[in-house]
């Protein structure tokens, strides 16, 4: 007979594991969790929020640069994607980071179509991750509200 | 362990143009019982140190303030707009007031010539991003040993005296703004994985 807390905890565990197994997150995300404690209980949420703001800003910059038909500043796109790659790496956003690598390659070879396609994928990917992490944080909240502890998940 | 200028905690100046990375490095350092100041550029770092020009500091820090906020370690990203981490490193090493401060370079790119260039210019270490807790722990131990050597405290025993126990126990009892987390109780990855020195790396 499973209590609500146990059910939620299992859901949380399973969901977390799936995010890693499906390649959304890598071990840097685990590293971030190590930095969260009673003194800094929302650290991970705060960092990923900053990351998603970064995504929005940088993707918008790149889209604008790519919009300048005939006069695309590939250097600007390159430096923006370098920044995005860096922050995605720092939070463990594995798929986003992978797409940034591809985008950087398109940019370096001044492949306009490739850049446009890739940028669209980056946009979709970060939004997908954002939704998934929101679900994960919601589960955490439900566990806490039900009076339970958030389980440590070993990947 | 009373080290002149160290008081109870290391004061680290962290330089990075990325919001995300500043937040992460700040937390990594605070959880390792360091006092942290973050700035977003090399220019701001020089300003903070009072090295920003022939006319002196424009940041209104008095000499007294500077001594209170004495920086024990500078950790800087390599690729930044404006002044790069390498250029910042050079400026620091050129200054008589600050050349003794260890400088660590961080980069997301494992480029051997870049690493060598920084080490030759006097960088204490080179960290590959993303930076992990184990990197910071190792860094802190390195800096404490460097600091001790400079204070002449190694004369009583062999030069390679490891102060693991001392380092882990004393800083965590310090109060102020940093968390009192005992780093030694956390599970760490192998610290050597991010050591970039001058070893050839096959990728």
Query: What is the number of helices of chain B?
Result: 7
Shape of chain A: elongated
The beta-strand count of chain B equals: 5
Helix content of chain B: 25-40%
The CATH topology of chain A comes to: Four Helix Bundle (Hemerythrin (Met), subunit A)
What is the percentage of strand-forming residues of chain A? Answer: under 5%
Strand tally of chain A: 0
CATH class of chain A: Mainly Alpha
Question: Regarding quaternary structure, how should these chains be classified?
Answer: heterodimer
- N-C termini distance of chain A: 26 Å
Strand content of chain B: 5-15%
Largest interface, C-beta closer than 8 angstroms, per-chain residues: A-B, 25 and 22 residues
Count up the helices of chain A: 6
Shape descriptor of chain B: globular
Radius of gyration of chain A from CA coordinates: 18 Å
CATH superfamily of chain A: HPT domain
* SSE topology string of chain A: HHHHHH
Give the low-pLDDT segments of chain A.
none
Major sheet size, sense and barrel closure of chain B: 5 strands, parallel
InterPro entries (chain A): AHP1-5/YPD1, HPT_dom_sf, Sig_transdc_His_kin_Hpt_dom
Subcellular location (chain A): Cytoplasm, Cytosol; Nucleus
Protein name (chain A): Histidine-containing phosphotransfer protein
Domain HPt (chain A): 40-147
Topology record:
The complex is a heterodimer of chains A (155) and B (203).
Chain A lengths: L3 H18 L5 H8 L8 H25 L6 H18 L2 H15 L3 H34 L10
Chain B lengths: L9 E6 L3 H13 L2 E6 L2 H8 L13 H6 L4 E5 L7 H10 L8 E5 L4 H9 L4 E4 L4 H19 L12 H6 L34
Parallel strand pairs in B: 1-2, 1-3, 3-4, 4-5
Helix pairs in contact in B: 2-4
Keywords (chain A): Acetylation, Cytokinin signaling pathway, Cytoplasm, Nucleus, Phosphoprotein, Two-component regulatory system
GO biological process, one term (chain A): phosphorelay signal transduction system
Protein name (chain A): Histidine-containing phosphotransfer protein
